[in-house]
C-alpha cells in the first residue's frame, strides 16, 4: 500500500530533495506539492532536474485536501511554520523541517529566534527528530521536528561521548564548515556565486548561531546538568556537505570505541577506523554520516570529525527516515542511495 | 535471479560509477572488482564514498573465475583493453567502456588512435553501444562497445535530424563544453584544481578529438554518404556534465518536431518545449539526457543543445542500460535515479 | 599633476574594479565615490577587499562637486545612466560603462533595450569606446561609451578579419562562454552559488543578446554592408573571464597573419603562435586579451579564440585605458598589472 | 638603480607569483630563472599568464652567473634546497622559500622533516623570515628563511598575544582552512579538480603538520617556556587563501586591543573593528593579512581569525618584503597591489 504524501514548501532546496528521495521510495506517492508564490507552476519549471517525474502541480496550501494525505512534510521558513501547522488537521502526521518545534522550552525558543512562540501546544507535542536517538518517540509521534543540519552533525559526534562520560563537558569546541545550500534559495548578495566561490569566512561566530539552542537542550539533557559548547560555523565554497571538527578532552581511543559501540548497528552512521578522518565528498547526496577520531599530539586531547550532507541526512533524508518510522515502514526505505562522487 | 557482475578497472571514475549504480540494481550482484595496481585493497580505501557497501576486494584480472561471472564491464584504458578482452572467455558477455571497439573500420581506428588494432575479430564482433539506436543488436550481442561521452551527447542531438534529412549535412558544427571527470583520475598537471578551477579553454580543437571518428562513422552511415562535422571541445571547471551546442542549418520548428517524435517514447531522452534550452545542472548523477531547440535570428539556422552526465548516461549509465538489454532485463532497471541538485 | 576622479555606481563590481585599478595609477586620485542606496557607508564596508585604501565615503550623486572633478566614470545600470549623465555638467569628461551610449542609432537602441532613448544629443556625441579601434576619437571625446564585455571579446577576434576581407561575412558564428561577475552584484536566484557552481547553460540564445546590437553596428560599418553574426552565450561556473570561440570560413593562416599584423604593436592584444589557443585563466585580473587561431580539419574553416577578463579589459580596464587617452596620459598607465594565476 | 634578481624553481606556483610581483617592482629586474626539468623553455610556455612579460628563458641552476646576481630567491622543495644553497656563492643574498632553514634546531628539523640537516652552518646563519617580527635581523641577513604559509597565518594572530601575556598558553587551538595552491603544482590524485572541488577534509591532523615545528620554536621563544598549540588544517576547494580560526582563553577586548596596538603601524596587517571577522576573499592576490577578534558566549573565551593569501603574504609576497629589506629598499615596494575581488 502506498502512502500519500504532501510536501509544503516544495520550491526550496529541502523540498526538492524530498521529492528526489521519495521518487525512488517504493511505498510513498507524492499527491500534493505546495509553494505559495509559485502556485500553478509545474515542478519542472521550478526545478528542471525533476522534469522526468510525474508530479502534481504546485498549489497553495489551502488547495490541498488533507483528508487524502497520510503524511505531510513541512519545509517552510521558521515563524511561518507555526501558523501553517496550527491550521492543519490535528490528526495529520507531520514531519517539520523548520526550526519551529526543535526547542522544548518556550523561553529558549524566544531567546534564539527573537519572537515568542505562537503554538505552544504543538511545541509541547513535537518530538525532536534526531532519528537514531529518538526512535521510539518518533515512531509514535504525530509531529516530528527535524533538527538543524549543523546541530545534527555535531550531535552525531558528541552524544555518545557525553552519555558515556568520556570527555570533559566544560571544554567542547565545534569548528564547523558548511556548504551553501543550507542557506536556502532566496537570493541574497552574500550567497551569489561571485561572492562565495573561491573563499571562506565565519558566520554567526561568537556563540550567536541558533543551532546552539539545540546543542544546549540536548547535551544538557544527556548530561543531566548544563552543558555549553563553543561553536564557530564557517561558510565554504561548496554546495552540499557539512564537516564538524569537534575538539574534546578525553582519551582518543576510548572516544573511538565509544562511538563504534554506539553506532555498531546503525545503518547510516559509519565510524571510520581509528586515526582516519572523513571527507564531505564521500557523503554528498546520501543519508550517510561518516565519523572519525584521532588523538592530538597533546595528551588527553582528541578530535572527532563528523560529515554529512546538509540537505539529505541533515534535513530531507532525516525527515524521510522519520516518516518511515511514523508510517510503520522499514527505517531505511528509500534512503540507501549511494553518495555521488566525483 | 541475480546476475553476477565483474567490473575490470574499478579504481577509475567510470568503474566507481558502475558500482554506485549497480548497488541499487535489484537483479545484479557485484562478485568481482579488478584494479591491477590496487589489487588487495578494499574498494572503501580507493573510493571512501562506497564504504557503506559490502563489496569484494580489488583483485588482479587473472584472479577472477569468469565461469562464475554472467556479465563483465570493462573500464580499462584503450589499447590495454584489446589485449585484456582477447584473453577473456569467448562466451562471456562484455560491456566495454573503452574506445577500443567503437570504430568498425580498422583503418579508422588506426587513424584516430595511432596504432593498429590488435583484435580485429573482436572489433568485427562488437556492437556500437548507443542504446537508443542499437537496441536489438545490443540485446543479442556478446560484446558491446560503449560510446564516447562526447560522441553520445552530439549524436543524441543529431541522429534523428540526419536521418530525417531536415538539416544541411555540410554545415554541422558542435561546440562542446565538458566537465573534468571525463579526463579520468590519473594525475596530470592540467587536471589539478589549482589549474582548472575558475577558467576554461579548448582542447583537441581543429578536428583532432578522437570522438570525431565516431561522429564520422555514425553520421555517414545514417546519411548514406560521407558527413564530416566540425567539433570544438572545451574543458569547464565542473566535475560532471557535457553540454553540446549544435549549430545546424534547417527549420528550427521542424527540427524540434523531429526530435520530439524520435524520442517520444524514450525514457531517458527528454526533449524540452520549443525555445527552451537545458542546463547540465539538471542531469548530474543521472542517466537522463535533456535536449532543446531554438531558432536563431538568422532565418534557416537553429541551435540544438544536448546535455548529459559524462560518467552516467555518457558511459556507466549507458553501459548498465546495455547490460540490462543483454541480460534480458528491463532496460531502465537500476537507472531511474533522479539527478542531484544543487 | 594628479587628475581628480569620480566614480558613480561604486558599489557594483565594475565600480570596485575601477577603484582597484586606479589605486595603483600614478596620476589619478579618487575624490568621489557614489552609490545611492549605500550613501554614507565606507567603501571598506561594501567591499572589504579595499579596506587598505584611503578612499572617500560613498555619497549620493548630487553631493558631488563636479567642478572639482577632472573625469567621471559612470558605472550605473542602463536606462538610469541616460538621466544621470544628462544632468551632469556638459563640459565634464565622462567614461560611461553602461549600454546607454554604445549604439549610434536611436532605433537600434530602442530595439535592443526596449525603450526609446531619452538623451539623443548625448547619444550622438558619444564615441564608441573600443580603444584599439577608436583611439583618436576617444582622445578628443568628452563622452566615451564603454563597450559590452562580450562585444569587446568578439570584436577583437573579428574586426581585422572583416576589414581585411579574409573571411566569409555571411557565416560568422560566435559561441561565447562567460563568467558570472558580468551579471552583476544584484541578488537573483539564478546567480546563487548553489544554482551556478558545477554546471553550465546558454542564455539569451537564438539572437536575443543585446550585445548583438554592437556587433551589427560595428561589423556592418567596417564591411560597408550589413553583417549579421550568429551569437550564443553560455554562463560558466567561474567568476571572471570570457572565452569567445569564433567560427569563420577563410584560410586559417591568412587569418592568423591578419590578426598578428593588426595587433603587432598593441600592448594589450596578444596573438599566440598559430595553432595555439588561449585560456581564460591566463588573463584574470588584467587588461590583456589573448587571441589564437587554428584551422579545422574541414578545409576553408578556421576557429579564432579570444579571451579577456570581463571586469577588466571588458569594462573597467577598457574604461581606464580610455580615460588615459582623454586626459592625455600614456594609454597603458596603471594597466600593466600581470594577471593572477592560479 | 635596479637590482638583478634570480629565481630558482620558477616553474612552481611560488616562483610564478614572484615573477608576477617583481614585474611591477620599480627597482628589480629578473635576470635569471631556473627550472631544471623545464630548462630551455620560455616562461610563457610554462605559465602562459606571464606571456606579456619580457623574461629570460628557464635554465639550469649551473648555467646562472651568480656574480651578476644581487639577490636570489630560492623556491625549491625542502631537502633539495639545502644542497643547492650550499653550492651557491657564500656572499650571495638569498631569500629561501622552502622549509629547510626555518627551524633553528637541528634535532627539531630532523624530527619534523624526517632526515638530518645537511647544511648546519647555513641553518645557523639563516634568519626566520616573518618580516614584521624580524625586521632588523632580516635587513642585515644574507640568508633569510621564508616561513610556512600556515605558520605565518597562525603567528600573526598569536605572537602579540603570547608576548603580552593576555591568553592562556596551555590552551591554544588553531583550526586552519587552506586553499589548494599551497600543495604545489606536482600532479597528485588528491589534488585533482574532480577530487577536490565541492568538498573539504582535514589533513595532517592530530599534531602531524610540519608547520608545528615553527609554532613550537617561535611561541616558546616568545613565552620563554615551552608552548604547544593544537593545530588541525583542512583543505578547501579554493585556490588561494588561508583562514586560521584561533581559539584562545582570555579577554576578547584585551586581545583585540593588543593586536590593534601591535599592528597599528604595520602596512600589511589590518586589524578589523572588534567583533568583525575577515574573509579570505578580501586578500586574494595581495600581501595583506586581515585579522579579527570576537568574544564567545562562554566568558573568558575569544576567537581570533587571521586570513592571508598563501602564495603572496604566505610565501612570495613575504619573500619580496624581506628582499626589499635586505637590499635597503622601502619595505612595501612592489607589494601594494590591491587584492582582486570577485
UniProtKB/TrEMBL annotation, chains A, B, C, D:
Gene3D superfamilies given in the database record: Dihydrodipicolinate Reductase, domain 2 (3.30.360.10), NAD(P)-binding Rossmann-like Domain (3.40.50.720)
Catalytic activity entry: N-acetyl-L-glutamate 5-semialdehyde + phosphate + NADP(+) = N-acetyl-L-glutamyl 5-phosphate + NADPH + H(+)
GO molecular function, one term: NADP+ binding
Chief localisation class: cytoplasm
Domain of life: Bacteria
Short name of one Pfam family: Semialdhyde_dh
Pathway(s) the chain acts in: Amino-acid biosynthesis; L-arginine biosynthesis; N(2)-acetyl-L-ornithine from L-glutamate: step 3/4
GO CC annotations, alphabetized: cytoplasm
Keywords: Amino-acid biosynthesis, Arginine biosynthesis, Cytoplasm, NADP, Oxidoreductase
Entry-linked InterPro entries: AGPR (IPR050085), AGPR_dimerisation_dom (IPR058924), AGPR_type-1 (IPR000706), NAD(P)-bd_dom_sf (IPR036291), Semialdehyde_DH_NAD-bd (IPR000534)
Active site annotation, chain numbering: 149
Protein's GO biological process: L-arginine biosynthetic process
CDD domains recorded: AGPR_1_C, AGPR_1_N
Residue ranges annotated for the Semialdehyde dehydrogenase NAD-binding domain, each copy included: 4-141
Keyword Electron transport: no
Compartment(s): Cytoplasm
EC number: 1.2.1.38
Function field: Catalyzes the NADPH-dependent reduction of N-acetyl-5-glutamyl phosphate to yield N-acetyl-L-glutamate 5-semialdehyde.
NCBIfam families with a match to the protein in the record: argC
Family note: Belongs to the NAGSA dehydrogenase family. Type 1 subfamily.
The protein, known as: N-acetyl-gamma-glutamyl-phosphate reductase
Amino acid at each position: 500500500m502506498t502512502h500519500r504524501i504532501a510536501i509544503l514548501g516544495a520550491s526550496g532546496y529541502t523540498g526538492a530533495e524530498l521529492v528526489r528521495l521519495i521518487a525512488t521510495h517504493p511505498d510513498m506517492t507524492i499527491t500534493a506539492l505546495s509553494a505559495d508564490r509559485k502556485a500553478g507552476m509545474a515542478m519542472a519549471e521550478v526545478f528542471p532536474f525533476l522534469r522526468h517525474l510525474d508530479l502534481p502541480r504546485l498549489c497553495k496550501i489551502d488547495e490541498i485536501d488533507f483528508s487524502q494525505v497520510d503524511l505531510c512534510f513541512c519545509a517552510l521558513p521558521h515563524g511561518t511554520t507555526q501558523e501553517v501547522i496550527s491550521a492543519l488537521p490535528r490528526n495529520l502526521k507531520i514531519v517539520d523541517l523548520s526550526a519551529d518545534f526543535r526547542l522544548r522550552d518556550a523561553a529558549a525558543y524566544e531567546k534564539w529566534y527573537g519572537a515568542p512562540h505562537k503554538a505552544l501546544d504543538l511545541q509541547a507535542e513535537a518530538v525532536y527528530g534526531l532519528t537514531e536517538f529518538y526512535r521510539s518517540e518518533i515512531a509514535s509521534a504525530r509531529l516530528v521536528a527535524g533538527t538543524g543540519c549543523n546541530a545534527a552533525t555535531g550531535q552525531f559526534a558528541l552524544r555518545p561521548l557525553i552519555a558515556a562520560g568520556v570527555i570533559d563537558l566544560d571544554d567542547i569546541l565545534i569548528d564547523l564548515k558548511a556548504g551553501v545550500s543550507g542557506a536556502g534559495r532566496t537570493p541574497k548578495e552574500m550567497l551569489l556565486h561571485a561572492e562565495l566561490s573561491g573563499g571562506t569566512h565565519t558566520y554567526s561566530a561568537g556563540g550567536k548561531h541558533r543551532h546552539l539552542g539545540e546543542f544546549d537542550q540536548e547535551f544538557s539533557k544527556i548530561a543531566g546538568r548544563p552543558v555549553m559548547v563553543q561553536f564557530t560555523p564557517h561558510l565554504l565554497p561548496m554546495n552540499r556537505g557539512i564537516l564538524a571538527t569537534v575538539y574534546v578532552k578525553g582519551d582518543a581511543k576510548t572516544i573511538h570505541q565509544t562511538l563504534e559501540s554506539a553506532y555498531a548497528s546503525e545503518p547510516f552512521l559509519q565510524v571510520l577506523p581509528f586515526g582516519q578522518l572523513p571527507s564531505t565528498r564521500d557523503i554528498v547526496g546520501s543519508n550517510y554520516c561518516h565519523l572519525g577520531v584521532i588523538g592530538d599530539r597533546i595528551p588527553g586531547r582528541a578530535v572527532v570529525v563528523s560529515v554529512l550532507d546538509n540537505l539529505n541526512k541533515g534535513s530531507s533524508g532525516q525527515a524521510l527516515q522519520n516518516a518511515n518510522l511514523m508510517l510503520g515502514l522499514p527505517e531505511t526505505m528509500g534512503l540507501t542511495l549511494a553518495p555521488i562522487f566525483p
